[in-house]
């Protein structure tokens, strides 16, 4: 037995799906029926494949990653795996750890934490972002969380770190341990606020994945990211996220800026039930960041489309069965399968059906027995499981003995 690639289909094979026309009643992905050569005669794909944003998006940003949170699909990567200075965007990890402590009950929203001199000097006494915490004052955890999320307060980050972990160093150690546990392998944190440090680095992809975790694991806290302003100590400050109020459906998440990193953004928005996350960095001004944020988020929705391939329960292929009461078993899609990619990549799409053949009986209905791989130029390969469409019992003892004598499967 070995891995079998039963068919490789090009985009032309999926013409009826991509154009919205009725599809073949049963795709012939198994021997004895028409193969890919016949399907490829369906003709060219309908409609233009390219537009102003076709291919990698032209941008002045030094790093770019676009992610579909709904399907967990990477859409575009331009230097997205290269560790970069994240500035305040790394505060997402500070918030993630605090939310874990709240969820576990180790702290409560109204827990009071004392503002140390170190936190104060890195807040109101500095040029960095802060929420005007007074030296020696006590602040509620929930206020400090909002200060970090809405106005990027460095003093709040330090007050949380010292109040919960005892020191910023101890908090940083947990940040790095958590990054490793979450598989954010590019992350190397040196402080809780994102202040410049030669070894404070994380990739755009890992920032997007971290943002996605906050969105899905802590939805109540994530709501703070859409707040337009925050008032504390008789002072009101605005959220710097340029998408809020300017892009319909935008609800987060975090800006960043230092002279080393330039101007960056993690942005998220929902449109027609689909959530997209963009991460970019390295722009030269707030104005440039604002313009690019809206343009890239618009492209994230307009230029990346989902193309349905198979419906749940639909037969994708057939496999031979070893020592089974039936000679073959159907491989079906356990759930709807769609390919999400840039519209310009649609014509390069390839679909592979892979399974080990023959499949040994007995086989339970719904048992995973193969996979469907979808790839396209400029897109990450996506793999979907395929399951047995029906149960296949093992042959009886006599039939097995006869098969052993004759070599029949």
Offer a quick outline of the entry.
The chain has helices at residues 15-19, 36-39, 91-104, 117-121, 141-151, 154-165, 168-181, 204-217, 219-222, 286-302, 397-406; strands at 2-10, 63-68, 73-78, 112-114, 138-140, 229-232, 235-238, 250-258, 262-271, 274-283, 304-310, 315-322, 328-332, 337-342, 350-357, 359-360, 368-376, 379-388. It is α+β, with helices and mostly antiparallel strands and 409 residues long.
What does the model show?
The chain has 409 residues and is an alpha+beta fold. The protein has two domains: 2-47 and 307-406, Peptidoglycan synthesis regulatory factor (PBP3), Domain 2 (Sandwich), CATH 2.60.410.10; 80-269, Beta-lactamase (3-Layer(aba) Sandwich). It has eleven helices and 18 strands. It has helices spanning 15-19, 36-39, 91-104, 117-121, 141-151, 154-165, 168-181, 204-217, 219-222, 286-302, 397-406; strands at 2-10, 63-68, 73-78, 112-114, 138-140, 229-232, 235-238, 250-258, 262-271, 274-283, 304-310, 315-322, 328-332, 337-342, 350-357, 359-360, 368-376, 379-388. The strands form five sheets. A seven-stranded mixed beta sheet has the order 1-15-17-18-13-12-16, with no helix packed on it. Strands 3-2-10-9-8 form a five-stranded antiparallel beta sheet, with helices on both faces. A hairpin with a 2-residue loop joins β17 and β18 (379-388). The longest helix has 17 residues, at 286-302. The radius of gyration is 27 Å and the shape is elongated. The relative contact order is 0.15.
Considering the chains and any ligands shown, give keywords for the structure:
single chain; five-stranded antiparallel beta sheet; 18 strands; seven-stranded mixed beta sheet; about 400 residues; about 30% strand; alpha+beta; Peptidoglycan synthesis regulatory factor (PBP3), Domain 2; 2 domains; Beta-lactamase
């Amino acid at each position: 037995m070995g891995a079998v690639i039963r068919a490789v289909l090009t985009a032309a094979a999926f013409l009826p799906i991509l154009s919205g026309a009725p599809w073949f009643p049963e795709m012939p992905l198994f021997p004895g029926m028409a193969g890919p050569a016949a399907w490829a005669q369906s003709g060219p794909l309908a409609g233009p494949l390219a537009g102003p944003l076709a291919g990698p998006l032209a941008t002045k940003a030094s790093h770019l990653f676009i992610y579909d949170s709904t399907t967990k699909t990477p859409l575009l990567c331009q230097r997205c795996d290269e560790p970069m200075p994240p500035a305040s965007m790394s505060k997402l990890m500070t918030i993630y750890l605090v939310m874990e402590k709240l969820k576990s009950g180790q702290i409560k929203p109204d827990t009071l934490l004392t503002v140390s001199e170190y936190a104060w000097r890195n807040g109101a006494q500095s040029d960095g972002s802060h929420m005007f915490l007074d030296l020696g004052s006590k602040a509620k955890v929930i206020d400090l969380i909002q200060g970090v999320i809405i106005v990027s307060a460095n003093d709040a980050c330090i007050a949380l770190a010292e109040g919960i972990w005892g020191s910023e160093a101890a908090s940083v150690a947990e940040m790095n341990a958590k990054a490793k546990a979450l598989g954010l392998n590019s992350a190397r944190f040196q402080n809780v606020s994102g202040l410049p440090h030669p070894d404070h680095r994380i990739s755009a992809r890992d920032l997007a994945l971290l943002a996605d975790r906050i969105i899905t694991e802590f939805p109540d806290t994530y709501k703070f990211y859409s707040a337009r302003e925050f008032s504390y100590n008789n002072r009101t400050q605005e959220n710097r996220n340029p998408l809020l109020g300017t892009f319909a459906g935008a609800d987060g998440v975090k800006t960043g800026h230092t002279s080393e990193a330039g101007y960056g953004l993690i942005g998220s928005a929902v449109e027609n039930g689909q959530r997209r996350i963009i991460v970019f960095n390295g722009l030269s001004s707030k104005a440039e960041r604002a313009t690019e944020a809206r343009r890239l988020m618009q492209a994230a929705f307009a230029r990346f489309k989902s193309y349905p391939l198979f419906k749940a329960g639909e037969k994708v292929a057939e496999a031979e069965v070893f020592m089974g009461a039936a000679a073959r078993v159907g491989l079906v899609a356990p759930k709807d399968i769609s390919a999400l990619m840039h519209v310009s990549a649609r014509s390069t799409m390839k679909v592979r059906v892979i399974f080990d053949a023959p499949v040994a009986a007995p086989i339970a209905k719904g048992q995973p027995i193969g996979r469907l791989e979808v790839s396209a130029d400029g897109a990450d390969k996506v793999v979907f499981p395929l399951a047995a469409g029906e149960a296949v019992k093992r042959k009886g003892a006599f039939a097995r003995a006869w098969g052993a004598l004759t070599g029949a499967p």
